[in-house]
UniProtKB/TrEMBL annotation:
<protein>
    <submittedName>
        <fullName>Adrenodoxin</fullName>
    </submittedName>
</protein>
<dbReference type="GO" id="GO:0009055">
    <property type="term" value="F:electron transfer activity"/>
</dbReference>
<dbReference type="GO" id="GO:0140647">
    <property type="term" value="P:P450-containing electron transport chain"/>
</dbReference>
<dbReference type="InterPro" id="IPR018298">
    <property type="entry name" value="Adrenodoxin_Fe-S_BS"/>
</dbReference>
<dbReference type="GO" id="GO:0051537">
    <property type="term" value="F:2 iron, 2 sulfur cluster binding"/>
</dbReference>
<dbReference type="InterPro" id="IPR001055">
    <property type="entry name" value="Adrenodoxin-like"/>
</dbReference>
<keyword id="KW-0001">2Fe-2S</keyword>
<keyword id="KW-0411">Iron-sulfur</keyword>
<dbReference type="InterPro" id="IPR012675">
    <property type="entry name" value="Beta-grasp_dom_sf"/>
</dbReference>
<keyword id="KW-0479">Metal-binding</keyword>
<dbReference type="GO" id="GO:0005739">
    <property type="term" value="C:mitochondrion"/>
</dbReference>
<dbReference type="InterPro" id="IPR036010">
    <property type="entry name" value="2Fe-2S_ferredoxin-like_sf"/>
</dbReference>
<keyword id="KW-0408">Iron</keyword>
<dbReference type="GO" id="GO:0046872">
    <property type="term" value="F:metal ion binding"/>
</dbReference>
Length: 145
């Protein structure tokens, strides 16, 4: 066999793609109940709620079209600071209508105000977000009503 046609067999030390892409998230309800769920890298938090059939009353009513605020979640500051994308103006408009919107604080390093509330339909899970905990507000407000 010609040298350039030879193939070598190696053993892979990486995990299968399906295992590698799995992420975990815990939802903490106002009652203190903790709901653990699994998703995939690239899923939104709304996708994870729907795919795991998690019972969060009214959550995600608009199915991620940014026309309600029912997927409002509250993040710990240390998690919020690691979210891959900042909220868009459209998301901020919807958050203004959400119940239990968290207080804002001023980020002196980047010179802007930050709110620890985000819409789950706008948060795309990454490997860095694996294992996060988010708080589910006591009540929701469907901005479409």
């Amino acid at each position: 066999m010609l040298p350039f046609l030879q193939t070598t067999r190696g053993t892979s030390t990486t995990q299968p793609l399906s295992e590698k892409q799995e992420v975990n998230i815990t939802f903490v309800k106002a009652s203190g109940e903790r709901i653990k769920a699994k998703g995939k890298i690239g899923d939104t938090i709304l996708d994870i709620v729907v795919n795991n059939e998690i019972d969060l009353d009214g959550y995600g009513a608009c199915e991620g079209t940014l026309t309600c605020s029912t997927c409002h979640l509250i993040f710990p500051k240390e998690v919020y600071d690691t979210l891959p994308d900042k909220p868009t103006d459209e998301e901020l408009d919807m958050l203004d209508l959400a119940y239990e919107l968290t207080d804002t604080y001023f980020n002196y390093l980047n010179n802007y105000f930050i709110n620890l509330s985000r819409l789950g339909c706008q948060i795309v899970m990454t490997k860095e977000l694996d294992g996060i905990e988010v708080r589910v507000p006591t009540t929701i407000n469907d901005a479409r009503a």
